Structures are given as C-alpha cells and as structure tokens.
UniProtKB/TrEMBL annotation, chains A, B:
Species whose genome carries this gene: Pelobium manganitolerans
HAMAP family to which the protein is assigned, alphabetical: His_tRNA_synth
Record GO cellular component, one term: cytoplasm
The keyword Ribonucleoprotein is assigned to this record: no
Protein name (record): Histidine--tRNA ligase
Lineage of producing organism: Bacteria, Pseudomonadati, Bacteroidota, Sphingobacteriia, Sphingobacteriales
Amino acid sequence: MANVKAAIPKGTRDFNPQVMVKRNHIFDTIKKVFKKYGYQEIQTPTMENLDTLTGKYGDEGDQLIFKILNSGDYMLKAESLKQKGEELSSKKLLPIISEKALRYDLTVPFARYVVMHQHEITSPFKRFQIQPVWRADRPQKGRYREFYQCDADVVGSDSLLNEAEFVCIYDEALSKLGLRDFTIKINHRKILTGIAELIGKPQQIVDLTVAIDKLDKIGLDGVERELLERGFTAADLDVLRPIILLSGSNEEKLQTLERVLQNSESGQKGIAEIKTLFGYLASFTLENAKVELDLTLARGLNYYTGCIFEVKTNEVAMGSIGGGGRYDNLTGMFGKEGLTGAGISFGADRIYDVLEELNLFPAAVSESTKVLICVFGEEEQNFALPILSRLRKADISAELFPFGAKMKKQMAYANDKNIPFVVIIGSEEMQSKQLSLKNMESGEQVKVSVEELVERLGVMSN
Amino acid sequence: MANVKAAIPKGTRDFNPQVMVKRNHIFDTIKKVFKKYGYQEIQTPTMENLDTLTGKYGDEGDQLIFKILNSGDYMLKAESLKQKGEELSSKKLLPIISEKALRYDLTVPFARYVVMHQHEITSPFKRFQIQPVWRADRPQKGRYREFYQCDADVVGSDSLLNEAEFVCIYDEALSKLGLRDFTIKINHRKILTGIAELIGKPQQIVDLTVAIDKLDKIGLDGVERELLERGFTAADLDVLRPIILLSGSNEEKLQTLERVLQNSESGQKGIAEIKTLFGYLASFTLENAKVELDLTLARGLNYYTGCIFEVKTNEVAMGSIGGGGRYDNLTGMFGKEGLTGAGISFGADRIYDVLEELNLFPAAVSESTKVLICVFGEEEQNFALPILSRLRKADISAELFPFGAKMKKQMAYANDKNIPFVVIIGSEEMQSKQLSLKNMESGEQVKVSVEELVERLGVMSN
C-alpha cells in the first residue's frame, strides 16, 4: 500500500476537540431554545435523489450541487450513447452516471420530508434541523464547501404568532450565548410590493432597496442620482422620497407607510401584518434584541411572501448571523400545493466567530476532564485504580496517566487538555493515604483523603 | 418546474422527531461516558480525498465507496483519453472524473487526522467521534447505505489500562441505557497466533475459530469432523482438543491455555496481557457486564494485533452491539509508522432496536413540550401570551396553539406530540383568572392561578 499524503479536500475542515466543544455549545444552546418553543428535531439523509434537488436553486445552484457517481459499472448505461457515436459531454453523461447528490440546504429536503410524511405529521408541524450541507463554491475565507445549517420552520399555520416567536427565539438563543446588542431587522414582502405598485415598477424593487440602503453613506442626493441611473424617473422620486427618508421609531415608520401606501392593497396588508406582529411582541419581554422595521431588507425576495427577518450583531463588524421569513407553497414542487410556512436560520459559523472575538465562550466549555491522576510506577497505579473508579462513580470526569511517563509530560498533558486538577500519587501518598491535590490554575497544592477528594471535586462539578 | 416525487435514495432514512429523541438519548448517553473517561470529540469532513480511502478496505470495500463527481465540466479532463480513442470504461474514467468520496468508516479518517495534526495533538490522544458513514452495500433489513458510527480510540499509549477502561465504558454506557445482562467477550490476537504456531497452520486460524464456535451446536465430534474437512490432521486435533473443549471460568481457561501454549512466545505474551487486563478490571466494579474470555472471537483478525472485544446482549437475540481492539501502525498508511492504538465502537442502530424491544427508552425522552395552551379566540390568545412568556422565562417548554382551531384538533396536537399538560383558556378563565390545567395522562383537571401553574410545571421539569 503506497503512502498517501494526509490531507483533506479544499473547503472542508477537521474540527479538533477545542473547536468541537465550542461548536456544540452553540448548537446545544440553540437546540434548547428551539425545543422550549415546541420545535422538534428531524434529520434527513445526506444524499437526496438528484431530481429532488435539481432546478430548486437556479442554474448556478445546480452547478454547485455535489453529485454522487452511481456505484458499480456506471458507464454500462452509457453504452447506447457510445454506440450512437454521440459526444460524451459532461452534461449528457450526468443523468446517466449520477442519480444522487449531496444535500445543498435544509429547506428543500424539509419540503420533500413534509410531502413524503404528510400523513404522519401533526399540523402545524414545527421542526428544527441542524445538519451539514455541501456546495461546490470556490472556497475562500469564511466560505466552506461543507458547513452546518441550523434551521427552524413551521408549516401549516399562518398565524403571525409564529413570526413573533421566531423573534423571541433569536432573542433568547443569542442572549444565552452572551450577545447583548443585536438587531432583528424586519421587513414585509407585501410592503415592498406596495411600493413597487406605487411607481409601477415591480421588477425594480431590488434596485430600489439597494439604493435606499446607501442613504447613510451617500445622502439623499446620492441615492436619487443612483435611482435615476437605474431607470427611475423624477416623478418616481417624488413618490418615493418619503420612503427613502423613512426614519424614526417603528411606529413612526408605520405611520408614514400607511399614508404613502394608502391606495395599495398589498401595502396595507403588509403593514397590518407587521402591526399584528409588533402587537404580539409587546406581550413578550425581549432580553437584548432590538426590533427594527427596515425596508432595505430584500433578502430572498423571490422566495419570501410575508415577513422577512435578518439578524445583525452591533458588537462586531460581521454580516448577518441569522435570517428567515414566511414562504408560501414550499411543497408545491413535490406536488402538495397551498401549504404555508415560515422559518429562520442561525449562521453558526459566523456566530462562532463573533463569540470568539468577543471572548464569550464560557471557560468551563473548554474543560474536558476534571482531574488527572499522576503516578510514578506500577505500584502507585494499582493503588490509584480504585480511587479512579470512585471518582467516576461519583460522576466526576477523571483520567489516570498510565505509569511510565515523566511528571513533566503528565503535567503538559493536563495543561493541554485544560484539566483543572491533578492528583499526584507517590510512595509518600500511598503510606499516608493523603493524596496531593493540585489546582492547576492557582498552583495551590493541598493534602486530601480520598473521601475529601471525591467530595471537593464533586461539588465543583455541579 | 416539473413536480418530482417525494422520495429518498434506497438504503437511506429520514428520522422523525420521535426517532430522533430516542437516537439522541443513545448518543448523549454514550457521549457522556466517553467524556467521563477523558475522551474528546472530533469531527472530520464527510468528503475525503478518494486516495485517502482507496485501498484501505480491500477490493470489495473500494467498490462500496461512494465517489463524488468532480464539479464543473468534469469530462474536460477526459479529452486526452477520448483523442487517443481509448475505451471510456468506468475504471479508466474514475480517477479522471472523481477526486473525492464519502467517508466509509471513522477509522481511516481518524488515522488521517492523527497524521495531519500530529504536531498539535497531546499524546496519548483519546478521541471519540459520532458521525454517519456511507457504503454502497445492497440495502436490506437492518443494513443501510447511510448509518452512524460511534467510536472511541486512543493512540500513543500501549498501556492495557486503556483496554480495561474500554470494558468500563461499555459497562457504564450500556447500563445507563438500561441493559442489565450483557457479555463483553475478550480474545487476544497473540493467543490465536500461539495456537496457529502450535500446529504450524497460521493461515487457518479463522477456519479453526469458526469450527470451534459450533461446539455447542454440533458437539466435539462435529467440530472435529469439520476441522478434518477443512484440512486439519488427526495430529492437529490431538493438540487442539484442550482448546476446543476450553471451558470454565476465565481463570480456568487461562490455566489451560498457559499449559497448552507454554512453548509459544506469542501465546504467552497474549495470556500475560489478558491477565494484566483482568487484574486492572478487578480494581473497577462493573455494574452489569459479564467479561468472558472467548477464543472463538476472530473479529477483524487482519487488523487487530492485541486484545479483541465484542459485546453481546443476553436479553434479546441480536448480533454484536459493539466491538473493537488494539491495532498497531494504523497511521503507517499515511507515513507515520509505529503508532499503537486501541478503540471500540458502539452499534447504535442495533442498540436502538434492543432498547425498543425491551421497552427501555424512558418515557420522558419522547416528551417534547411540557404544556400546551389552548384558546378559543383572539381575545383569549392575547390574554394567554404573557402567560406563555412567563412559562418560558421559567424554562418551561410551552406552546400556544394559534387561535382559530377547534378544541378537538388542539387536543389531538397535544396527544400526537406527547404533551403532558394542557391549559385551557376561555372567557370564564379570563374573568376568574383561574386557568384550567389538564393532566393529559390522568385526565384530571384543576383550576390554578398563573403563579401556581408556573410553580407546578416548573417543579415537574426538574
């Protein structure tokens, strides 16, 4: 067997123990909040049928789906193509040699799941799902070919209470993770539709929001110049000006919008829904989240049909750390029409970077073993084994470094693993039955009996 | 967009909420025990370079690896083959159109990880890993193309304390899961080598163990007949007879082996190691596991170099629910020679089936939400929202069924989700501020204030 270089595919990552505990801290925290709000976990297979995924993410998306080669003699099925003398191009060959592909997001598999299991699902169905997805994107800093998504969706309920609870979930989960200053931006697809109706340019709603978004940077003149360049007329600008300059509290913004959009049915519907949502939110006390109506939010506009969310931290410069919204007819692609749904997503990789930068990972998270027992020889080891057993019976995470290693190596092991306590057992300790317990952080060393040891560390484990 | 049938690839599974909580119960329990013994979690990418995996699992294994098609115009690289007019066979095309593959087990990626990260690893390195693997096996009952492995391995320590701790880990994890009668079978590669030396037939050691394994079924005559058929001589049988008939306690078996294998250096080494292991185990109190020296255990013989483990439950007819052993030079395939390691694996799918059959999943595991608030109209809903918020602030998992649904539907929802308590809020409850709290199991219904509700359910959550 020839030696192979130890390497992994570009855009993929190994997660070492230190990183894993931090990632689990994030996922566990979010999971706990999802569950508290009645969301239940599901998992779907890594591989989906290729035709389940194809055509759902646009042409570019189709290119970025990782396809799996059929197993066995996959070229057998291409025989007829070969015999006809046809050119074996990548495109022609693909449906012949590949039937499966890697999950590209969690949304399409969820839609497929809902349709496939519709008769066993309790409606409204509130599910969360935390699993990796794969995209053949060009890898770059912060963009990976394998990354986790962390989604909660509800289908079968059009109540805006769901949207209000998504705001609460963001607030609670991000607060539990230690964030203290973040904004949940909210927009509504129907308000944007109303604005587009106002000026009769429904196709250009994204141009409009992109330009408005620059108000802080380039001022009203700049925004208007840009809008003119993008094909809006002077008459459009007169109508749009109150929207471009929209500011103040959420209530003030809504008042302005009600006036401006008074003739748009869509606009009024959107405003009414946002008001209902804000009304629900008044019954819930948010811990740290600011909620802000932001018309420049045009996220996933082709997809969302109601409220749209995006979450940003104000403590670190970073893109959005979460987002979502309401969509209609998600399951239509699998033949089940008319099902409404809403969902949110946490950007776990970005949240990781934020917590790292703000130093918000609890110290205990990186602690693995509570105590390491160090011995000098076989006799000490035999003396130590029942002590090791007692510690574990008391539910204390404990290790014994097998005899034969120098003390320096054993201490380095404790340090590297962030083990907070070390017990040293030499001949003196065996005779006196008083063990040396060292606090690795303070350096303090005391003598304790086995009973005292178990009691002390047991208390600290809680 | 054409409608596509909602289906998943054969041999893969969706896990619904009820199954997920049970699977998580198993994984969480095992994880907790791994950590208690100082094992730390890592994760490796789903995709490995194809050459990392190829040649590690034998020819048959290579066939069963799922390969990933290169992204982009993968046939471009085949141009030179085409121009030379070469036959585009599956075999010739493969290295051209595929560079990556799905993880086939957790062991090879672990070896790759150890070599790749050798300078950041603290030795001995104790890692656990719980991730799915993929095999293009023919799907059948209980055999899937995607399934989770659940492994703990230590590299860089030849101490038999590691093996002893593996026995403890099996004992503790399976006991925590509720199993009360299971056997950890132990064998040693060097004892088998010693037996093979004894009769000068090292190639036939597997034939031998397979035949011995049938003793209970076909008796000594049957075993001897089978051994003769398999090419052993009458002289061999005379030597082997005490081994075939090996019985009694572990101590008695070891005494017999010591006598029979007295001239085999390997055999003596293996016996000495098993004795050391049993010595260590005497210092640990096992809860439920029986430990049994079993020479018919030939699991992974080409792979293991020291102790070999296999775990069987005695409560249900089922194959092994775990196994492992010591191996040398695992990392040699990636250019790092001479590293010793040992590891064990839990068979999560089989453990799931065992717990299901023995009804050992705790009832609380299938509970999602603690309380559902049912309302009749919008006014009741508005009255209920602050109550919902208070319950959640008290860390009680709570849901409100959005107004507009019939009580029957709401009750069915609570039933389907195994929600143990329901609060009903109608006009009477709003006036009296005394809520109706219904215990869904007993049917008992009482009136409580909001304070009492929070207190009652809070106590029950702990």
